[in-house]
Amino acid sequence: MTDLPSTIPAGQPRWRLPRTALQPRARFVLAAFALMGFAIGLSQNAAPAVVQDQIRDLGTTVDVLGYSIMSYSLGVVVGAPLILVGLGRVGRRPLMVWLTVAFAAMSVATVFAPTAEALIAIRFVAGLPHGALFGIASFVAMTVLGRERRGQGVAIIMLGLTFSLIVGVPAMQWLSNAADWRVAYGVVALLTIVAAVAVWAFTPDVPGNKETSTKKELRSMRSVPLWTALIAITVGFSGLGAVFSYIVPLLEVGNGMSSTAVTWVLVMWGVAMSVGAYVGGRLTDRSHLGAGRLGLVLISISLFGIGIGGSTPFVTVPMLFLLGMSSQIYSQSAQVHLMDTLHGSPSLGSALSHAALNAASALGAGIGALIIGAGLSYQTPAWAALIFTSIAFVIALVGPGYRRVRTVKELDT
C-alpha cells in the first residue's frame, strides 16, 4: 500500500480537515473503512442473534421480526441508488462522514424502539446509508490500491463486516441472553459512533464527479448488462437471507442445540465468511466471472444439504460453514462485476451491488417469514432459495454482460 497525495487545491483552507485526512496513509484509510464495515455488520447481522429475546420483550412472533430484517434490507435497496445518483457530485469524504453519523443515530434509535412496528420502521431508515457507504468506500479503496487490486480492496472492507460475525454477533447473542437485547444494541450504537470518528479522521478528500448529473447517472442505469447483473445478484444471494435470518431458531428449535452451542456456531459462521472474503478477493482479481460461478455452485450445494439434512447438527453445521464461505466468494465477484459494468461510475456500481445483495436478503427473509408463518420447518426456506440460486447460475453463464467482459486495460482506456 502507498500513501495518497493530498487532493486539497493550493490556497484552500486546510483547518477544516484533520492532518490524518490531509496526509492520508492507505493502511489507516482501509482500517477506518473496515471498522465502519464492522459496525454496520454488527448492526445488521445482530438481528437474527437477538430475535428470541426481542420476541419476549416486544410481545411478537418470529415471522413479524423477520419483517424487521427485511425492512433494513429494503432500506439499503432504496438508499444506495437514491443517495449516489442524487449526490454524485458531492465530495466523497463529507458524504461518508454524514452518512456514518446518520447510521450511528439510527443505531441509537434502535435501542429505544417501543414496539415491533416501530422497530421495523427504524430499521428501514437505518438501512438507507448502508449501500452508499460501502459503495463510496469501495471506490476510495480502489483509488488507494489501484484498479488491478480492486478485489482485495473490497475484500479488506468486507473483512470488517465478516469479522463482526466472528466476534460481534456471538457476543451480541450472549449479551442479549445475559442482559437484554437493548443493551446489546447499545454496544452497537457506541461502536458506530467510534466508526464515525474513524471515518472523519482518516478518509481522504476525494472529490465527487463534477461532470456527472442525475440525468447522466440514470441514463447509465438503463443498460441491459447492469440489470442482468442486479437480477443475478438478487436471486443468487437470497439463500443467505433465507437461512441466516432464522439461524438461531433453526439451530435451537430445529436442531435442539443449546444457546451456548449456537454462540459457537455463530463464531464458526463468521470465520466461514471471513475465509470466503479473503479467498473471494484473491479469486476475483484472477477472474471475477469464474469466482462468481464457483460461489453459486457452492451456495447451491450448501442449500441442498440444509434442505435435506437441516434437522441434524452434523449436517447443518458444515453446510452453514459452506454457505457462509461461498456467499462471500460470490459477493466479492458480484461487486467487482458491477463496478466494471458501470466503470464510469464505480461508486454507484458498488453501491448498487450492495442494494442488490440486500434485496436478496429481503427476498430471502420475506420468503422465510412466509414459509415459517405457514407452519413449515426452519429448513424449508433453503429449498426456495435453491431455486433462485439455480436461476442466477444460468444467468452468470449465458446472460448479457457475462459472456464478454472488458479487461482492466480496456476499462482504463
Features:
single chain; 413 residues; mainly alpha; Growth Hormone, Chain: A
Could you describe the 3D structure shown?
- This protein has 413 residues and is mostly helical.
- The protein has helices at residues 19-22, 26-58, 62-86, 92-111, 116-145, 150-178, 181-202, 214-220, 224-236, 238-244, 247-254, 259-286, 288-309, 313-341, 346-373, 381-398, 408-412.
- The protein has a single domain, classed as Up-down Bundle (Growth Hormone, Chain: A), CATH 1.20.1250.20.
- 79% of the residues lie in helices and 0% in strands.
- The chain is globular.
- Residues 1-15 and 405-413 have low confidence and may be disordered.
In short:
Helices cover 79% and strands 0% of the residues. The chain is mostly helical and 413 residues long.
Instruction: Specify the structural class.
Output: mainly alpha
Overall 3D geometry?
A: globular
CATH superfamily: MFS general substrate transporter like domains
Number of strands: 0
Helix content: over 70%
| CATH C-level category | Mainly Alpha
| Unreliable segments of 5+ consecutive residues | 1-15, 405-413
Task: Give a short account of the largest sheet.
Answer: none
How many domains make up the coordinates? 1
CATH topology: Growth Hormone, Chain: A
Q: What is the first-to-last residue Cα distance?
A: 24 Å
Query: What do the pLDDT scores average to?
Result: 81
Total of DSSP H or I helical runs spanning 4+ residues = 17
CATH-defined architecture: Up-down Bundle
Strand content: under 5%
Helix-strand topology string: HHHHHHHHHHHHHHHHH
